[in-house]
Design brief:
The protein is α+β, with helices and mostly antiparallel strands and about 350 residues long. Helix content is about 40%, strand content about 20%. The protein has helices spanning about 155-170, 170-185, 190-200, 205-220, 225-235, 240-250, 260-270, 275-285, 290-300, 305-320, 325-335, and strands at about 40-50, 60-70, 75-80, 85-90, 95-105, 105-115, 120-125, 125-130, 140-145. The strands form two sheets. Strands 1, 4, 7, 8 and 9 form a five-stranded mixed β-sheet that branches. Helix 3 packs antiparallel against helix 4 (about 205-220), helix 5 (about 225-235) packs parallel to helix 7 and helix 10 (about 305-320) packs antiparallel against helix 11.
């Protein structure tokens, strides 16, 4: 029987620099509990398996397992998800995680996930796989699309791991030095460039941070995370035109990004271009960002379209039934919903 293909782990998901956005920027959009600093996060994503090349029996479901740090004994949770379904892990602390996919007890994919934010936040990591035709009777092989990881030498990977450990320990000077060594030895390591940008950001060195993100994009124009990190940096600096420039490119990438659409919609709102914000906020909501409904409702309310605002609140509460100000929104809906 052929071995299951297990790709190197990709680690980049949520970014701590998202917290550098001003508190007012998304105040009326975020339903997060800001008292839960450094924890209470949610990791979720869709499981999509291309079975077009498969022969014979296909998996009925996939076990999605989340491990904290690198220890497989430290299991956070396990869920069984069908093809086309969605997994969700709640109440996660800041840190590194391994997201593992198993079929009938055999590991077929492992994705490195990095979750960092000062306040409660949602992070998305979709899992896209291809279930391939067996090479021999009874044999199965599985593969994962791993466009967003960089294959390093063993020595470089150890250096990368040390740099990430320094980031976790908030030793940003050490992290910068280690990431500089990585990109100095291999200027094509777009993940290291992106992480270097984040390390600089924690040192309040926005200029070098932007340069690093731009280097990552220059090396790999399809690496969405570098676009998002750069856009958040520019938004934190209130450079919304610059954010729109980079996010317009990000939303054109595949697979579609809920974060990119949400941030682009928000940037247009900050530029007082509501009509341009609407389609991106709608797409963000469709892709799993219910807070976009709040922004749309606020926009519609301000221009007197209260029935449409009420309709957005209805959809938001359907996605976030435990929203703290639920009663206030329900009262608004009652007063303004189109009969």
């Amino acid at each position: 029987m052929n071995k299951m293909l297990k790709p190197p782990a990709t680690h980049l998901l949520g970014r701590a620099l998202a917290t550098l956005l001003s508190a007012a920027l998304l105040a009326c959009a975020l339903a997060a509990d800001t008292s839960a600093q450094g924890g209470g996060h949610t990791l979720m994503g869709d499981v999509k398996v291309d079975e077009s090349k498969a022969e014979g029996p296909k998996p009925l479901a996939f076990d999605i397992i989340l491990y904290r740090e690198r220890g497989d004994s430290n299991t956070v949770g396990r869920q069984t998800v069908p093809n086309g379904g969605r997994y969700r892990f709640n109440d996660l602390d800041n840190g590194y995680y391994d997201l593992v996919v198993e079929v009938e007890g055999a590991e077929v994919a492992r994705i490195r996930v990095r979750i960092f934010a000062a306040y409660k936040n949602d992070f998305t990591q979709n899992i896209e796989m291809e279930w391939r035709a067996p090479a021999t009777a009874g044999a199965k092989t599985a593969g994962v699309s791993t466009a967003d990881f960089y294959k390093r030498t063993s020595a470089a990977q150890k250096l990368f791991d040390r740099a990430e450990e320094a980031m976790t320990a908030k030793k940003y000077t050490d992290a910068v030095s280690l990431f500089q060594q990585l990109v100095g030895a291999d200027a094509q390591d777009y993940q290291a460039w992106t992480e270097l940008g984040t390390a600089y950001l924690f040192q309040d060195n926005a200029a070098e941070s932007e340069k690093s993100y731009l280097r990552a994009i220059g090396v790999r124009p399809a690496f969405a995370l570098a676009y998002l990190d750069l856009a958040r940096l520019r938004m934190a600096q209130k450079n919304y035109d610059g954010a729109v420039e980079i996010l317009t490119k990000a939303v054109a990438l595949q697979p579609p990004s809920a974060d990119a659409n949400l941030l682009l919609g928000e940037s247009y709102l900050q530029l007082k271009k509501g009509s341009k914000a609407v389609p991106y906020l709608e797409e963000a909501a469709r892709l799993g960002k219910p807070e976009a409904r709040l922004r749309l409702a606020t926009l519609y309310d301000r221009v007197g379209m209260k029935d449409r605002a009420a309709a957005e609140y209805v959809q938001f509460l359907a996605a976030k039934p435990d929203y703290p100000d639920r009663k206030k929104l329900e009262q608004y809906i009652k007063e303004n919903k189109k009969q």
